[in-house]
Amino acid sequence: MKSKINFYHWYYYTQSQKRGFIALILVVCIVQGLLYLYYYRESDTRKEYILTSEEQKFIQRELDSLRVLASQKKDTIYPFNPNYITDYKGFILELSIEALDRLFAYRESKHYVNSTQAFQEVTGVSEAWMQKYSRFMVFSSQSKPYAQQNREANPRSSFNKKEVKPKTIQDINTVTVEGLQEIYGIGPTLSQRILDDRNKYGGYVHIDQLKFVYGLSDAVIMALLQHYAVLVPPSVTPLDLNQATVDDLKNIPYLNYYLAREIVKYRSLHGDFVNKEQLREIEKIPLDKIHIISLYLEIRN
Q1: What is the chain's alpha carbon radius of gyration, rounded to the nearest angstrom?
Q2: Any bridge partners for residue 228, and if so which?
């Protein structure tokens, strides 16, 4: 009797209410159907796939071949002149900081190594290092000061058979475009680029600045160093490293606004600079140019 009464209640709803009720039932049914299909397909995709023995053997062979290739892979090392190793190149060649410092100090004294034995004597690298990297070293055929020292130390050396006439060193700050083009490998474009850099900096303060002229190869740089030097450096008023502002520092060659800001930030965090070697702790500062940058700076306290 009660169900009959509830049935009669259906007739009390309006047509729109009845349609809404039926639509709600249909939506619920559709959603339930979609959820069922989704989880049914998901369960199918989650079924564990078991490899056959042949497939397992094939994959194992592929993995073994990849391991062999990985073990045989070696980083490519190109021939290099040890007289012009930079900090980055030294890191790639696994040179210690002490060995690099000895090489840089030797190079600062205007000396150059001309053999693998000379390089080992100067840097103090191990025999294992020499066996690994010495075959990639290339040296200029031109005479170097180190060779002259060896000749003086050993009078019976074969170098005594033929005396090499000393070259006339010219001032890089007075050389002309035509004079530079007498060096093999330098044409009008490169010679003009060298002079443009010289004019940009107001003159070269260090001969190593030639190494950073775009487009010069190691062989051309070596030839330039054999013929030119900074005989009369430009007049430079060094900035006080502990007083200079960001605007002052950013105008120094090889620095920019970002590096100048990092120098001032380092000074504010750690106090005044005690020595110029602390510049090496500045983030992203070009380590191979610090010895040149430092010529524009001084510590007055």
Answers
A1: 37
A2: 170
pLDDT mean over 257-267: 92
CB crowding 255-285: b at 16 or more within 10 Å, else e: beeebbebbeebbeeeeebeebebbeebeeb
Whole-number Å distance between alpha carbons of 275 and 263: 13
Joined together, the tokens standing for residue 60 give 């194992």
Residue with tokens 């001084």: 298
- Segment 142-156, tens digit of pLDDT: 444 444 444 444 544
Determine the residue type at 64.
Answer: D
Evaluate whether 85 touches 287 at the Cβ level (below 8 Å): no
Residue 157 neighbours by CB under 8 Å, 6+ apart: 150, 151
- CB-neighbour burial class of residue 127 (10 A; exposed 0-12, middle 13-18, buried 19+): exposed
C-alpha span between 104 and 112 (Å, rounded):
10
The tens digit of pLDDT for each residue in 60-99 reads 888 777 776 665 555 567 777 888 888 777 777 888 888 8
Residue 137 is classified by DSSP as: B
Taking alpha carbons only, the member of 300, 258, 257 closest to residue 275 is: 300
Structure tokens at 4: 């009959």
The pLDDT assigned to 162 comes to 42
In whole angstroms, give the CA distance from residue 293 to residue 244. Answer: 14
3-state secondary structure of 297: strand
Q: Are strands 228-229 and 170-171 parallel, antiparallel or unpaired?
A: parallel
Q: Is the dihedral of CA 232, 233, 237, 241 positive or negative?
A: negative
Burial 75-88 (b: 16+ CB within 10 A, else e): eeeeebbbbbbebe
Distance of alpha carbon 191 from alpha carbon 5, whole angstroms: 109
- Name which residue leads in pLDDT, 198 or 50: 198
d(CA 274, CA 1): 104
In degrees and rounded to multiples of 5, residue 263 shows phi and psi of -65, -45
- Please report where in the chains the tokens 């150059």 appear, as a residue: 112
Beta strands in the chain (DSSP E): 170-171, 228-229, 239-240, 297-298
